[in-house]
Amino acid sequence: MSTQTHHKDWKASNLKAIHERLAPLRSADKIEEIIQGDIQGVFLHKEQTQLKMYCYDNGTQKLSNIMSRIDLTNPLNLIGPYSQAVFLSAFWQVEAPNNIYIAGFGGGRLAMLFDHYFPIVNIHGSDIDPNIIKVAKEYFGLSDKVLMDVFTADSREDLTSRDAQYDVIFLDVFVGGGEHVNHLATIECFELYKSKLTENGVIVANLVVIDKRMEQKIAAMQLVFKHCYIWEYNGAHVIFASDFDVDLKEMIARVSLFQSDEDLGFDLIEKVSMLKPCIRNTRIEALSDKDL
Predict the structure, then answer these.
(1) Taking a C-beta distance cutoff of 8 angstroms, is the pair 217, 190 a contact?
(2) DSSP secondary structure, 138-187, as one string
(3) What is the set of domains in the chain, with CATH numbers?
(4) Which of 15, 45, 107, 124 could disulfide-pair with 149, CB 3.0 to 4.6 Å?
């Protein structure tokens, strides 16, 4: 059996298993679950075929924006435009990624896609809220295989303790009502991320315009890495930072080849076309540990 045929058979089997894990949620008339925790509250809500996860600060009723969502009938479709943009990290290098790290695991939507389309990839990750990993398994269809190296921990401490080198590090850490975690986006922390990246690896940060320190965090990335690209849409900012200056035309070619073989349900080529070099604003002081 050829490698291509083996991967095709594996993906068919894997997709079937995902649908089986999601079947009870798909058939449920109504899902409105509140999971209380020491870190935050988690609210799960089913709206037609979509299951959405929100978070909130304990003691308040203020929900965050959607933290994770899944189409229970088409689980491999990334619904959020920013999530689709983040998936471009899979094509940053010529070769498919071997190791990825997800800081702020959430519902594990990206982990599901990386595992499905790149079966050899090793997925590591962390989330500070112990309930989140449970939610990823019970409500978002993540397998034990995907969750095997995902731990309840502060992502900075967890990465410090790991020996692996990563092709992609994804920073998507929000808590409570939607606050971005500052100590994971300082100069010192980006230096840690850089030390954990492969030579041509990339760190991808999901930032939002309502974050008062967003520009300082982008400045910190630019101070640590030689090259920085930005993808913007409706207040969302996805920043790609690397010492490797990606050739966007070559990336489009890789993405085009991938899309011709796979039924993604969203247009990655469009996302590449929206990438722009991120120009350094020298008037903005980069966020440092001393500022916290």
Answers:
(1) no
(2) HTS---HHHHTTEEES-HHHHHHH----EEEEEE--EETTTEEPGGGSSH
(3) 75-291 (3.40.50.150)
(4) 124
